[in-house]
Amino acid sequence: MPPKAKKLVRKKAKPDYQTTEADLQAFGGVKVGQLVRNALGCTGSVLGVKSAPAGGPSHLWVRYDSGLEAPIDAESLQPCDPVDQLRREIKERQQEERVLDGQWANYNAEQQRKEEEAQRAAARRRQKAAAAAAAAAAEQAGAEGQQRGRSREVKAVSTAASLAGRSKQAAAA
Q1: What ranges does the record list as Low complexity composition bias (predicted)?
Q2: Can you give the pTM of this predicted structure?
């Protein structure tokens, strides 16, 4: 008997965070993105409120600096100083600047590579044109040389004939 096909079990979608001020008011009026500290001193950023299924209690969720997302107890919730919030914003902006600087560096390197490639292509075209001109000049010089050679041969033959004719005249006289 062939094996039975397995049933696909779909995972339940996680409920989205509720981020309205009314939902967050129950937790001391914190705002999304605000830095808070738990009883152990770990700092995290507020994500929002998740309600438990079947009307259970809701929990405030925080993303800690390590990347972990976890609920935080309302009793242990302490807002961080505005100085900490400012430091975090500065750090985020510096990170964004580093990313943009890297993107600009990549863009500039690509533009420089394209420019160098265009210069090499132009140099190759100039070399081909110069080689073609040199070949044409050599061909023309060769043709002129052949023409000169023929005219020299004709002159030599005519000179020899005229000398022969003079020698006959001198012998006859």
Answers
A1: 129-148
A2: 0.49
